[in-house]
Specification:
With 354 residues, this protein is α/β, with parallel strands linked by helices. It contains twelve helices and ten strands. A hairpin with a 4-residue loop joins β4 and β5. The longest helix is centred in the middle third of the chain and has 46 residues. The radius of gyration is 25 Å and the shape is elongated.
């Protein structure tokens, strides 16, 4: 397969993957490799020719071999059963690359390991390990499962329970983001094989950038927002008995931060917090919110919803119903409410507990 001119200009170690219909796992695997300095200028060869693949420095999602020492990261071979530590989902090429290179990617984004000889130590830093696991759970594992044909729920259990979809999710999954960039079955295809391959490669490069951008958004969020919030949630968690002897009320005294993931981890599987109080902004005199803790991070069900009698009411009408002054609202679903002051929001939480 002849390489295009743009490929010949690249000077990094050559990455190989398969030609033909492409998927989210190898699209992300290639992108993640190119995030690292060693691969930043790497050419990409998309082929199924064993001789061309053998000449590549690193091969992902093709070749029937998993050998990190040789930079071979395929998962299709019989007997392959590698998983991410602590998880049961069999890895795809994305998971394999993230397993071996993900810590370096995280450390680089955190600004660690930039000094001479510091890279290995940086990859062992606690924050790097924490984010490595979080990114796998929240992003990469979905691609591994999708590529290996693993459903979110056991189909047999769903059928036995008689559950049916209430609506279509419109096919907008991480896998679909990449899949829709493949050519349609009836799209015109250049008659020249090299031109046809070049056109297909351009589509793959676009797909790789697309899924890579989503990955980087998650990475940046966890580095710049999620991780700094951890210490704030820890401080609030440690002080929770100041507001309720049983520790059922969590208060953010400055401003709200992303708290759910951190809270579930701090509880160590023993749910105790039912309500979270926080100001709507950091401005003086800001109104306060009372939010119910969900049963799980993605659940719409609260551990203890606000009283049914309060739901859907606002302002003075809610004051009269609740017996609490300064009320602003309680959502009709009972998962969140508001008050003009901290004392009012705390009063709402205490009364809701009873």
């Amino acid at each position: 397969m002849a390489e295009s001119a743009p490929k010949r200009l690249k000077t990094g170690p050559v990455i190989g993957t398969h030609s033909g219909h492409f998927h989210a796992d190898e699209a992300l695997a290639v992108y993640m490799l190119r995030m690292l300095p060693a691969y930043r200028d790497s050419a990409l060869v998309r082929t199924r020719d064993p001789n061309l693949l053998e000449a590549c420095h690193t091969v992902v999602d093709v070749g029937g071999e998993y050998d990190a020492a040789r930079n071979r990261y395929d998962h299709h071979q019989r007997g392959f059963a590698a998983t991410f530590p602590g998880r049961s989902t069999r890895l795809s090429s994305a998971g394999l690359v993230f397993l071996h290179f993900g810590r370096a990617i995280v450390a680089q984004r955190l600004g660690l390991g930039l000094g001479l000889g510091a890279a290995a130590a940086a990859e062992d830093a606690p924050d790097v390990a924490l984010l490595h696991g979080k990114l796998y759970d929240g992003f990469v594992e979905a691609l591994d499962a999708h590529d290996n044909g693993i459903s979110v729920y056991d189909p047999a259990a769903v059928e036995a329970a008689g559950l049916e979809r209430r609506y279509s999710e419109a096919g907008f999954t991480l896998g679909a983001v990449v899949s829709r960039l493949n050519p349609n079955w009836n799209d015109p295809r250049p008659s020249d094989p090299d031109a046809a391959q070049a056109a297909e490669d351009q589509r793959f490069e676009a797909a790789s950038r697309r899924i890579g951008e989503e990955f980087e958004r998650d990475l940046d969020y966890y580095v710049s927002a999620w991780l700094p919030a951890r210490s704030i949630v820890q401080q609030a968690f440690d002080k929770r008995t100041e507001f309720d002897p049983e520790g059922r009320i969590l208060v953010f005294e400055g401003q709200s931060v992303p708290w759910k993931d951190h809270l579930y981890g701090l509880e160590y599987g023993k749910p105790s917090v039912l309500y979270v109080l926080y100001p709507e902004s950091a401005s003086p005199g800001a109104k306060w919110r009372i939010q119910c803790v969900p049963e799980s991070p993605d659940s719409f069900l609260s551990r203890k919803p606000l009283p049914e009698a309060w739901r859907g009411f606002r302002d003075q009408e809610l004051d009269a119903i609740s017996g609490i002054s300064g009320c602003v609202f309680v959502h009709a679903a009972g998962f969140i409410g508001g008050n003009k002051t901290f004392e009012g929001a705390k009063h709402m939480a205490v009364k809701a507990l009873s």
